[in-house]
Amino acid sequence: MCDHHPSTASRRTALGFLGASLVAGLGACAVPGNQSAESPTAAPRTVGLSPSSSASAAVSPTPSPAGPGRLRNPFVPDFTLPPIQGGLAPVITKIPTKHPVVFLTIDDGLVKSPESVRLLAENGYPATLFLTSNTVRDNPAFFKAFMAQGSLVENHTVSHNVNMTTQWGYQRQLDDIAGMQDFALQQYGRKPTLFRPPGGTYSTAMRQAVAAAGLKAIVTWEAKANAGRMDYQYGNSLRPGDIVLMHFRPEFAADFEAFRSAQVAAGLEVVLLEDFLDVA
Ligand SMILES: [Zn+2]
User: Fold this and answer.
1) How far is the CA of 65 from the centre of ligand 1 (A)?
2) In which residue ranges is the amino acid composition biased (Low complexity) (predicted)?
3) Model-wide pTM > 0.85
4) Alpha helices by DSSP H, the chain
């Protein structure tokens, strides 16, 4: 979708990834209609990262923002978010990393089911929640349960106008983006640092507005869990550094299982994007 690939950071280290203990699969379920995503050699997975507290204590220089249940990064990020240049926010579609990590993002906030809270909690997955204020305004408090588990709320506009880049000029886009900044701060006590464009479409004016609203980057995706299966823009499995798109939809459980199966089969650990980018 986007060819803007920021250069890899210089702060590369030789530090190994402790989650190498990702182990053999708990009989990962097949992804409907996509046998190729299934790996018979799926590695077993550890439950969370906590059992290896001695190990993680040895290599955890990354800041771990406050929040009960928040997992600590067991690695040193090998990618640095490019700065805002010329007033334009950088665009990230995938993180170039050697670490076996994957990032889960969940959008909009339409369906607010206890099941979605339970599924993330049971698996210990933190997620980046790109919420639209008009969509969550009826019950913004619902999403605090995810925050208590280590997830963060980010900016997906006030209106979710998927044609905003063509219909609106800079100022109206800025107003729509800044409105969600204010809403998030008021409801969740934190100003978002990441922005996802409605429909994934962005423009130069949008990149300017995102930067002007105080956000650090636009985040799109190259893989998504949709209608109970995984869709990949490249290849047929998850890759290290992939950013996965999901939605709070009625089929949340099926989408989640499609993601989880693919993540386990690929031997990847679910890590919070904001932690990796140091923008939590
Ligand atoms: Zn959306």
Assistant:
1) 26
2) 50-61
3) no
4) 53-58, 114-123, 133-136, 144-148, 164-167, 170-188, 204-212, 252-265, 273-277
pLDDT in tens, 13-26: 323 333 333 333 33
Residues 6+ away with beta carbon under 8 Å from 214: 181, 191
* DSSP tag of 29: P
| CA–centroid distance, residue 219 to ligand 1 (Å) | 12
Backbone phi and psi for residue 231, each to the nearest 5 degrees, phi listed first: -120, 130
The three-state secondary structure class of 150 is: coil
- Whether 86 maps to a domain, the answer reads yes
In a domain, 1, yes or no: no
Is 4 part of any domain?
no
Count of domains observed in the chain: 1
Q: Which structural domain range is residue 181 located in?
A: 18-277
Strand partners, 85: 88
Q: How far is residue 83's CA from residue 61's CA, in Å, rounded to a whole number? A: 22
CATH number for the domain that contains residue 144: 3.20.20.370
Give residue 62 CA to ligand 1 midpoint distance, Å: 30
Tell me whether residue 5 is in a domain. no
**Cα 270 to middle of ligand 1, angstroms:** 21
What would the pLDDT profile of 71-120 be if each residue is shown by its tens digit? 455 678 899 999 999 999 999 999 999 999 999 999 999 999 999 999 99
pLDDT digits (tens, 9 = 90+) for 208-245: 999 999 999 999 999 999 999 999 999 999 999 999 99
